[in-house]
Amino acid sequence: MSSTFLGMPAAPPRAPYGEGNLRGDKKFPKAAHTELRNEQLRENLHRATHTIRAKRLAMTGELPDWEQLRAAGSAIKTDTMNRLPELLEQLEEKVTAAGGTVHWARDAVEANAIVTRLVEATGSSEVIKVKSMATQEIGLNEHLEERGIQAHETDLAELIVQLAHDKPSHILVPAIHRNRDEIRQIFLKGIPGVDPGLDSVPAHLAAAARAYLREKFMTTKVAVSGANFGIAETGTLSVVESEGNGRMCLTLPDTLITVMGIEKVLPRYSDLEVFFQLLPRSSTGERMNPYTSLWTGVTPGDGPQDFHLVLLDNGRTAALADSVGREALNCIRCSACLNVCPVYERAGGHAYGSTYPGPIGAVLTPQLAGMHEAKNDPNSSLPYASTLCGACFDACPVKIDIPSLLVELRHQHTEQSGTTAEKLAMKAAGAVMSRPKLYTNAQKAAGLGRVIAGRDRKISHLPPPFDGWSESRDTPAPPKQTFRSWLASAEGAATLRKAAAEGTGAPSHPSTGENPEEQR
Amino acid sequence: MRIGLFATCLGDTLFPDAVKATAIVLSRLGHELVFPPEQTCCGQMHVNTGYQREPVPLVRNFAEQFGDSAIDAVVMPSGSCAGSVRHQHEIIAERYGDRALRSGVARVKAKTYELSELLVDVLGTVDVGAYFPHRVTYHPTCHSLRMLHVGEKPLQLLRAVEGIDLVELPEADACCGFGGTFAVKNADTSTAMLQDKITHVTATGAAVCTAGDSSCLMHIGGGLSRIKSGTRTLHLAQILAATRTTPYDALTEAAR
């Protein structure tokens, strides 16, 4: 053993957090306060989430092996995360062998630069896009626009959001916050040459978008997509979608650039059997999505002849380093958790401030982008944007225990927050409650709450931080007697003797547990 | 059976009637109750708010108070506190406890039940001899439903109550919006959830909205009280404690 003093071992280098659309400008309660006043949003969200909940339950309920499928999905994803580096290298090797080119992007900045360079190399000033969470996350459209390249979203809802210069509010239904009259206005303003007599009949709105998009599909030489799955074993990429716009983008252009989060890799081709069942049933409540595209590198004479895969980290390695939190990387972006979440249903997606809203966003966003990047980081409020009701865990097709992850992230937040008024209060409460004598004294003090109650024994106003509570809820005045003092009283003993006599059992009186022999 | 009664800090201090009713039901069924006097709180509020060091003494105290092998089962009139004991105590013990705490937690966890679980699963009783001639609707609390998976057990107990007019609560499985400190930190969103719950509760025309957790009932009841609704909240145990000889009204009079 060397006697040299080496000092404290340095912390291992930590993977950096991601950048891009992963942080709002307000904390959740403040953002939700604004969104809750949007009646249109509340109504749309209620209708949409309730419809899709019913469809999802019907489609998952009809499969006798649904729980086994969930278990399989969870197991495959967990295995994937446990050997992510080797699977990614295998994917790179297979994609390259099939004629594609693989690029590695540490973060949003690198990914945007790679895609821009590739588009510029084709000489095109336009790209068509398949709906993709990864490119939303890195803010690709905005970046391309700065470089004079126009990105056209081709998914109907994404098109609506883009033409309105808006942000998506749902993973799957990004324009969930818009109604048909608003969409008509957006199209009249945003689609060049649209019929000025356009009405708000959904089929007419869809036809207007279709005519506009068809021209883009036929003339644009470069497409950018995301990927739902990437198969390490074969180098195959896959996109699932409903409208056929994805199929157009993936087959018509000369150049295809796919941006894929590194957690989207799956080990084997046969794993798709599990996920092609889990995803559509959880996502849209369909047995199968209308379009499933699979491609492997380049096929001479068929489809894009120049294929690039950009593998995006952007905070995923940072999340992988957290032994508890990494489970969030198992997410397949089905959005079932959003649709069942009572908080999402009221506050909407924008309140989360991130590309990833809802329960999964509340655990994924702080892990990808951090929650202590600045004082009062809005992301630090996300783990608290939940009642821990557990509906998300029940709905998740890969069984991510989101409530437990939320509790874990709350703990990480308090650990890094130093001394706060809340922490002091929690310490005090813990100290009192761990000393039974102090606890019974505190109970007596709580009884003093009776003096602030009205004649109806109700407390209708409380000071901050409880004023939000008392704005819509009465609080009962503490009773004269705690349970334990009742139990120790003659009245308590008599009541329980009477109850025992009333039943069939032998008379009993509670023992204190300290001397069980006495009771025998 | 020798049953350890955990009053929960909220039940002991603010809602003693629910705990009294629990004791009455179990006494009536002929079981021996043990009330370890040093019991305090399970630490759920700490853990759910992000504090895991502070509740270590609470977790230890719970394991010590109820670890006695002479106690066959531990019951509490709260799905969320039972959920905390069964799902959170081992996380705390694993991270900040010692070996003694870890084994103590594992021992006590295995015999901890929420009231309906104890009655139906352990004691094998569905009909507890209760009489409650009122219209009642049942709200399944989130932690009893999705953490403990109590399923139909509370409804089985309620259906066996003589004279009861049990009506289904629309969208019963939706959270009431309480969530502990959530209702304080995110009061606006919580209120929006509460309003929907109250709308559904009042639509049933029930005289009583019941549940297995005083915390959710405090929330729903607080909202019902504010709109001066005719529906009041009562813990499941309070309905089960009422009998023909000691009906509910007499029960509250005696408790005052």
UniProtKB/TrEMBL annotation, chain A:
<feature type="domain" description="4Fe-4S ferredoxin-type">
    <location>
        <begin position="328"/>
        <end position="400"/>
    </location>
</feature>
<dbReference type="InterPro" id="IPR017900">
    <property type="entry name" value="4Fe4S_Fe_S_CS"/>
</dbReference>
<keyword id="KW-0408">Iron</keyword>
<keyword id="KW-0411">Iron-sulfur</keyword>
<feature type="region of interest" description="Disordered">
    <location>
        <begin position="1"/>
        <end position="25"/>
    </location>
</feature>
<feature type="region of interest" description="Disordered">
    <location>
        <begin position="462"/>
        <end position="481"/>
    </location>
</feature>
<dbReference type="InterPro" id="IPR003741">
    <property type="entry name" value="LUD_dom"/>
</dbReference>
<keyword id="KW-0479">Metal-binding</keyword>
<dbReference type="Pfam" id="PF02589">
    <property type="entry name" value="LUD_dom"/>
</dbReference>
<dbReference type="InterPro" id="IPR024569">
    <property type="entry name" value="LutB_C"/>
</dbReference>
<dbReference type="InterPro" id="IPR037171">
    <property type="entry name" value="NagB/RpiA_transferase-like"/>
</dbReference>
<keyword id="KW-0004">4Fe-4S</keyword>
<keyword id="KW-0813">Transport</keyword>
<feature type="domain" description="Lactate utilization protein B C-terminal">
    <location>
        <begin position="416"/>
        <end position="488"/>
    </location>
</feature>
<dbReference type="Pfam" id="PF13183">
    <property type="entry name" value="Fer4_8"/>
</dbReference>
<keyword id="KW-0249">Electron transport</keyword>
<dbReference type="InterPro" id="IPR004452">
    <property type="entry name" value="LutB/LldF"/>
</dbReference>
<dbReference type="Pfam" id="PF11870">
    <property type="entry name" value="LutB_C"/>
</dbReference>
<dbReference type="InterPro" id="IPR009051">
    <property type="entry name" value="Helical_ferredxn"/>
</dbReference>
<dbReference type="InterPro" id="IPR017896">
    <property type="entry name" value="4Fe4S_Fe-S-bd"/>
</dbReference>
<keyword id="KW-0677">Repeat</keyword>
<protein>
    <submittedName>
        <fullName>LutB/LldF family L-lactate oxidation iron-sulfur protein</fullName>
    </submittedName>
</protein>
Automatic annotation (TrEMBL), chain B:
<feature type="domain" description="Cysteine-rich">
    <location>
        <begin position="4"/>
        <end position="85"/>
    </location>
</feature>
<dbReference type="Pfam" id="PF02754">
    <property type="entry name" value="CCG"/>
</dbReference>
<feature type="domain" description="Cysteine-rich">
    <location>
        <begin position="136"/>
        <end position="220"/>
    </location>
</feature>
<dbReference type="InterPro" id="IPR004017">
    <property type="entry name" value="Cys_rich_dom"/>
</dbReference>
<protein>
    <submittedName>
        <fullName>(Fe-S)-binding protein</fullName>
    </submittedName>
</protein>
